[in-house]
Write a structure and sequence with these properties.
Largest sheet: 5 strands, parallel
Radius of gyration: 22 Å
Number of helices: 9
Number of domains: 2
Shape: globular
GO molecular function: electron-transferring-flavoprotein dehydrogenase activity; flavin adenine dinucleotide binding
Oligomer: single chain
GO cellular component, one term: cytoplasm
Distance between the termini: 41 Å
Bound molecules: flavin-adenine dinucleotide
CATH superfamily of the largest domain: FAD/NAD(P)-binding domain
Helix content: 10-25%
CATH architecture of the largest domain: 3-Layer(bba) Sandwich
CATH topology of the largest domain: FAD/NAD(P)-binding domain
Organism: Gonapodya prolifera (strain JEL478)
Pfam families: Pyr_redox_2
Structural class: alpha/beta
Protein name: FAD/NAD(P)-binding domain-containing protein
């Protein structure tokens, strides 16, 4: 019997799972999907910042993978981390045991096609560090809630999406705490157009957040009484009981570096892709990259990841079709979207929850506009505290049951 060929997906988050959903009913016989993901559950990161402040819905944010592949499916989910990608297989950071793999206990998994969707790392609480069980991850969020309750003075470092969201959540829930937000630029979220800064500024101002612009934090040191002294590039010193680091994202591209060093941008770590979302290395036409880790002009949004992974799956299905009927002749025509010059208009839209209101930026009649979402909250009633996690549960084939989680 011919050996089954693997479409290996590295990373089971938004890009990886949407690739699974796009591919799982379309792969021809003889192929299967293997997802490699170290987290025990899907992490609904959109609501982590709120859940690190507001209690009681933490469990909604960790979704079991059990619905991804129904009983009897040939597809496999492996809980491990890929430490290296070679031209034929991926190397795991630990041995895994599964009777469906070619050798039952193994540290390597061969691939015919690879979708590399390992995303980018953020500091906690934007992303959880404890990932081996739902209980551990929930405990990490609860620990943040306790630390925030216990701190009178909080410095948020970084005025990107994470910093803005957590500053708003803390200041809305605890108006008596002193919240300072240090941002290295002069305006917030400029990639979404000019107007969004003013909307965000007004919301934070209303919550009493002290905003510092054009300064970068250069040091933080422990001082007497358990406090931390934060110092900025301009010499501003702020004493804090708690510092929340919301600084940047770190692409998880190291495992690809030895396979194709030229595909990884040495300065940023993002992976360069062709318009087909294959890596920019003609030696490996079967290696695709999508999601936050791909070096594109798309916003780093799950919506962009969904669109990219759909294109990647279409292209893999085309390549599989050609490889199974080589007599059809000619080079396959793959779908393309120029990753550096064709950002979809939709990728410039955002709804950013800031406490229980939000900043919205959209493109209307060719112009980028921004507004405060308070009216929307009034029209639709109080939005789900979990910021739409229920939809993700459904997408992953499981129903959110608050009593049985
Ligand atoms: C606070 C916040 C709010 C957001 N809100 C929204 C929103 O409302 N709407 C929206 O569209 N986008 C939103 N985003 C952006 C969105 O979260 C990202 O665009 C999305 O997570 C990208 O998905 P990804 O699958 O590419 O990467 P990630 O989500 O980063 O996932 C990467 C996955 O790969 C795994 N992994 C990493 N290294 C390895 C390895 N070596 N081997 C195997 N697996 C590995 C990780 O465990 C992880 O599961 C938000 C982001 C933040 C920070």
């Amino acid at each position: 019997m011919a050996e089954i060929k693997n479409v290996v997906i590295v990373g089971g988050s938004y890009a990886g799972c949407s690739a699974v959903l796009a591919a799982k009913d379309k792969l021809p016989p003889g192929y299967r999907i293997i997802v490699i993901e170290p987290r025990s559950h899907f992490h609904y990161t959109f609501a982590f910042l709120r859940a690190s402040v507001v209690p009681d819905f933490e469990r909604d944010l960790f979704i079991p993978y059990s619905g991804l592949f129904p009983e009897g499916s040939p597809n496999v989910l492996v809980h491990a981390k890929v430490s290296e990608v070679t031209s034929t297989h991926v190397v795991l950071d630990q041995s895994v045991t599964d009777a469906r793999l070619s050798t039952e206990t193994t540290t390597t998994i061969p691939y015919a096609y690879l979708i590399y969707a390992a995303g980018a790392k953020h500091p906690s609480p934007t992303e959880m560090e404890r990932i081996s069980s739902k209980e551990d991850s929930v405990a990490e969020l609860k620990d943040w809630q306790k630390q925030i309750i216990g701190a009178g003075r909080i410095v948020v470092v970084g005025g990107g999406g994470s910093g803005l969201e957590i500053a708003a959540e803390v200041a809305e829930r605890y108006p008596r705490k002193k919240v300072v937000l240090v941002h290295s630029r002069q305006r917030y979220m400029e990639a979404y157009g000019e107007g969004i800064h003013d909307v965000i500024y007004d919301i934070l101002n209303k919550f009493g957040v002290h905003m510092i612009f054009g300064e970068r934090v250069v040091s933080s040191e422990d001082v007497k009484g358990g406090a931390t002294l934060v110092t900025t590039t301009k010499g501003t010193q702020i004493e804090a009981d708690l510092v929340l680091w919301c600084t940047g994202l770190k692409p998880q591209s190291v495992p690809l570096q030895s396979l194709s060093p030229t595909s990884v941008d040495p300065k940023t770590g993002f992976v360069k892709v062709l318009p087909t979302f294959q890596i920019v290395d003609s030696a490996f036409p079967n290696v695709f990259v999508c999601g936050d880790i791909a070096d594109t002009t798309d916003m780093k949004l799950a919506r962009a990841a969904f669109a990219q992974s759909a294109l990647v799956v279409d292209n893999i299905l085309t390549l599989i079709g050609v490889s199974s009927s080589p007599s059809s002749g000619g080079a396959p025509t793959l779908k393309t979207r120029d990753p550096l010059t064709e950002p979809g208009m939709w990728t410039r839209g955002i709804f950013m929850p800031m406490g229980h209101t939000g900043a919205v930026a959209v493109r209307l009649f060719g112009r980028q506009v921004a507004f405060n979402s308070w009216w929307w909250e009034v029209v639709r009633g109080k939005s789900g505290e979990n910021l739409g996690a229920d939809n993700m549960w459904r997408m992953l084939g499981v129903e959110l049951d608050k009593t049985a989680q």
